[in-house]
Amino acid sequence: MPSYIVTLKDSATPEQVEAAKQQARDQGGKIGHEYTLIKGFSVSYPEGSVQTLSENEHVKEVEQDGEVKTQ
């Protein structure tokens, strides 16, 4: 299942963050890690599913999760 990192806008309230997580669940997503330093969470979706979280007015960014390397 592809995994994504969802970052919400700094102005998002806790209720709006919870609503975004519920939207992801409603679309078949499974919430993974919930971040505390930033307003965000990871979510995994089944292959071929459609995600519309990026259209949520409180979502700042949705990006595919991946390995990060430093040099």
UniProtKB/TrEMBL annotation:
SUPFAM superfamilies: Protease propeptides/inhibitors
Family affiliation: Belongs to the protease inhibitor I9 family.
Chain ranges of the Inhibitor I9 domain: 3-71
Database matches in Gene3D superfamilies: Peptidase S8 propeptide/proteinase inhibitor I9
PANTHER family in UniProt: PROTEASE B INHIBITOR 2
Protein's name in the database: Inhibitor I9 domain-containing protein
Entry's Gene Ontology BP terms: vacuole fusion, non-autophagic
An example Gene Ontology molecular-function term: endopeptidase inhibitor activity
Top-level division of the source organism's lineage: Eukaryota
A Pfam family hit: Inhibitor_I9
InterPro entries: PBI_I9, S8pro/Inhibitor_I9, S8pro/Inhibitor_I9_sf
